[in-house]
Design brief:
4 copies of one chain form a homotetramer.
Chain A lengths: L4 E8 L11 H5 L4 E5 L7 H14 L2 E5 L17 H21 L4 E4 L3 H6 L4 H13 L5 E3 L4 H8 L4 E6 L23 H14 L1 E3 L5 E3 L4 E3 L7 H14 L3 E2 L5
Parallel strand pairs in A: 1-2, 1-9, 1-10, 2-3, 3-4, 5-6, 6-9
Antiparallel strand pairs in A: 7-8
Helix pairs in contact in A: 2-3, 3-5, 5-6, 7-8
Chain lengths: 254, 254, 254, 254
C-alpha cells in the first residue's frame, strides 16, 4: 500500500501596490499549491508575476484565487453579480493569471474562489453555475471547494475535477461543515491541536467536531492560512507533522 | 496584379459599468479589426465579453487595446511605470482578453496600445521594450503602431510582425508624423476629404501634409475613430470610398 | 390661500472620467434640486465641481447623492457595509461635496442616498441608523427618502427634517409603495399620464395605484429621471404641467 | 528668551481596506501633527475616521495629506492633471477629511501634499497654483512644504501661512535641497546621527550637507517617517533627543 500524500494550499499574492499581506516567500517553501490573487480583491499584475515566478522556481502549483471585484472589501462582501457578468469576471481573472504564469514557465492548474465568492457558490446555484461555466470555457480547470457544496455538484456535472478541501485551523460541526467564524470554536489556535487534527484528517479521514463527535472529512488538499500571526510557523508545523506521520506532500494538480 | 486590400481598425468596448462610449454595434459592421479595451482605461469583463462575441460573429479580428491602469484619466495621461511592472500589466490585459475571446470562439490576434501608452512607446525605449517583452512572452502577437516608431524597431528586433497604421482623420506633417492634437490641422473634419485621403494612402501610399507637401505614408491598417460625433457615418464613408476605389477590406490578422 | 408649490429633484453629475450619463445642462434648467453624485458610484471631483457651479448659477439646490463605493456596479448592488464604515463613507462623501459646493458659492442642503443604499435604508435599521448618524454629525442635513421608511423614522428621531419624495414615472401599489422594477406597471411611460399623475400627487395628494385604487401619496419633492431616453422632454413636461396647474416650483431646501 | 519648540509631523492612515502601513497607534504618541491620507493614494473613510479620532484624543493636529488619485502607485507617480481638475481633487479630499475630523471633534488644520504631488508643486507653477487655489477656497489652510519651493511662493502670495519643513533622516545638498533618493547619501540611517542633526536644525538652524558644508535649514516642522523598519524607535529617539536638548514639542497649527 502506497504512503498517503496530501496537498497543502495557501492564499498568496494578496497585496496591492505598496501593501503586502502575509509572508509569501516563506509560505512558498512550505505549501504545494499557491492560490494566487488575481487583482479583483488583491494582487496587482506585478505582485502576481512575482508570485508565479517564485512558485515556478519551487515547483509549487499555481491556482487562480478568483473573486468579486471588491478591493476595498477584500472580496469578503457578498455581491449580487448577474451570472453572465460573473462568468466574464472569472474568465478575465483566469486569463490574466494564465498569461503571467505562462511567461514564468508555469500555468494555472486549478481554481479556488476567494472569500465571499467561495462561500456563495457553496450554496447559490446561479453563481455556482456561472463560475463552473467559466472554468469549462477556460478548458476545464479543477475546482478546489468544500466537498458536497453546490459548486462541487455543478463542477462534477460539468466534467470538472473537484478537489475536496479541508481546513487546518477551522472548527467543524457535527454535520461536517465549518463552524461559522462568529461562533465559539470557529478557530483552532493551539498549534499542537492543529497538527494532530490535520494528521488525522489525512490518515484517518476524520475530525473531532466542536461538539465532540468524530465526523468524516474528505480532504485532497489542506488549507493553511497565511495572513494570521504565527501563520508561517503554524504552516511549517503542519508540514512537519504530516512528514513525521509518514504523509507525503504533493500537489493534486501535478 | 491583385486588387489592393486594407484593414480598418477602431477602438471598441470603451465603456465601463453603466457607461458607454461610441456605437460598438454599428462600428463592428464597418471595421475589420476591433481594438478591444482591456479594463485598464476602459472596458470591464462583461463589456469585453460582449464585444468579442459580436466580433467573432462577424469575423472581425480582435486586438488588445492595452493601456496604463488609469480609469479616471481614460489612459490618456503619461505614467512612469517601471519596465517590469509594465510588462506584467500588458501580460495581464492580454491574458484577460484572450480568455474572453477564446470563450467566444475567437482569439487575440494583435495588440494596439492605447492613448498615452501608444504615444509613449513610439519614443521611449524602456517602455517600448517592456511592451514588446510582453508580446513576445505571450507568443509573439503582431504590434499595430506608427511606422518608424521606437516600438516598431524593438518589435521587429524581437521577431514580432509590425503593422503600420495610418489615421483616416488626422493631419500629417511634412516629416510624415501626426500633427499634434493641439495644433491647427490636427484633425481633418470634412468627410469627403477624409475619404479621398484614405483612398490615396492605400492606393498611392501618399498623403498631403498640413503644409502642402506630398509625403509617403505606409499603411497596412487605417484607424477610424468611434467616439466622435458622426463617427459611424464617417467610418462607413471611408469603407464605401475604399470599395468604390476597388480596394478590398480585410484584416491583416487573418 | 397660497398657491401650492413643489420641488423637482433629479440625479446629476453621474458621469466618471470621460463618461457621461444624462444631459446635466438641460436638466439643471428644469429641476429645483440637484442630487449630485459624490464619487462612490459615479461623479469625480471635476464633474462634481462643474455641476455645483452650474447649480449655484441657477439657484438650484445641491443635494448629496451618497452611495456605496461601487463604481463598477453604479451603486446598484447591495453591499453589507458595517455601520461604522458606512457612517464614515457617508461623512466622506458629504464633506467632499460640501467643499466643492462652498468653493462654488453654494452648499449641500440635503441628502438623497443613491441606488441600493437608498432602498436598503428604507428597511434595514442598521444601515439606516448609520446614515442618519452621519447626517447628524455633519450638522443635521435633511434626508430625502420615501415617506414611512425605516430611514425616515430614524431621521425624525435624530432631529433631522425628512423630505417625502414621490416618483413622477413610477407605478404605485395599493399600499402606497413603488411597484418593483421587475413587475408590470413599474414604469409609467406615457408623458401625458406622467404629467397628470404628478399634478394630482401635488394638488390632491393622491395617485392611482397599478391595481386601480386611489391611494394617498405624500410628496414634498418629485423625482424625475435624467438618464432615460426622452428624460429631458419628460422632465420639462412635468415642470410645464405643474405650472399650468398653478403649482409653483421651489426647492424645499431654500 | 523662551525655549525653542518644534513640530513633529508624520504620514499616517496610509492603509487601505485590509492593508496597513506603519504603526499609527505608536506614532500618534510621538508626533504633534498627523498627515492623514485622504483616500486618493491610501486611506479609506474608515481608516481616516480612526486616525482622526485617535489624533483628537491625544491633541495631535490633523493635516490633509492630499495626493494624486493613484492607489496602485501610492501617489508616487507624476501625473499630468490639468489645473481645474487638480483644484477639484484637492478640495474633494480636504472636504472629505474635514467632515470626518469634525465628527471626531477636531478639524483639518494644515495641508501637506503627498508623494509625487508634493515634489511636483515645489517646481511646477501650474500645479502649485492649482493646489493653492484649493487651499484658499477652503478657507486658507496653512501649507506644509519645502522652504523656497514654487508652492511656498504661491501660497504666500495667496495669503496662506507656509510651514517650512525639514526631514529628520534625509541628506541635504550644499544648496539646501534634499539629496535625490537615487543618490548616495539620500538617507541618514544612523539613529544617533539623525537625532543630532535634528537637534542642530532646530536649535542652530543648520545641517551638514552630504558634501560636508554647513548649510542653513529652515524648519517649523520636522518630518519623521512611519513606514520604514525601526520607524517608531527612530521617531521616539528624535522626540527624546529634542526634549533632552530643551526643545519643546508643539504643533505649529495650534
Amino acid at each position: 500500500m502506497p504512503a498517503p500524500s496530501i496537498d497543502l494550499n495557501c492564499d498568496l499574492g494578496e497585496g496591492f501596490g505598496v501593501w503586502r499581506l502575509g509572508d509569501d516567500e516563506a509560505l512558498l517553501d512550505i505549501v504545494t499549491s499557491a492560490n494566487v490573487a488575481c487583482g479583483f480583491h488583491a494582487g496587482d499584475p506585478q505582485i502576481m508575476s512575482g508570485v508565479v515566478r517564485r512558485a515556478a522556481a519551487r515547483g509549487v502549483a499555481v491556482g487562480a484565487q478568483v473573486s468579486y471585484a471588491d478591493l476595498r472589501g477584500f472580496g469578503r462582501r457578498d455581491l449580487d453579480v448577474p451570472a453572465t457578468e460573473l462568468t466574464a469576471d472569472v474568465l478575465y481573472q483566469l486569463g490574466a493569471l494564465e498569461a503571467l504564469a505562462r511567461a514564468a514557465g508555469t500555468r494555472v492548474s486549478y481554481v479556488k474562489p476567494h472569500g465571499a465568492l467561495y462561500h456563495r457558490i457553496t450554496r447559490d446555484p446561479v453563481q455556482a453555475a456561472a463560475v463552473v461555466e467559466a472554468l469549462v470555457a477556460f478548458g476545464g480547470l479543477p475546482l478546489l471547494t468544500l466537498p458536497g457544496s453546490v459548486a462541487a455538484g455543478f463542477a462534477t456535472d460539468g466534467g470538472l475535477t473537484v478537489i475536496a478541501e479541508a481546513y487546518a485551523d477551522r472548527g467543524y460541526t457535527a454535520a461536517g461543515g465549518l463552524v461559522p467564524r462568529s461562533s465559539v470554536g470557529a478557530l483552532v489556535t493551539d498549534p499542537g491541536a492543529v497538527v494532530s487534527r490535520v494528521v488525522r484528517m489525512v490518515t484517518e479521514g476524520v475530525v473531532v467536531a466542536v461538539t465532540g463527535e468524530l465526523v468524516p472529512v474528505e480532504a485532497a488538499s489542506i488549507c493553511v492560512h497565511g495572513d494570521t500571526p504565527g501563520a508561517v510557523a503554524l504552516a511549517q508545523a503542519v508540514r512537519d507533522g504530516l512528514s513525521s506521520a509518514g504523509v507525503g506532500l504533493a500537489t493534486f494538480a501535478a
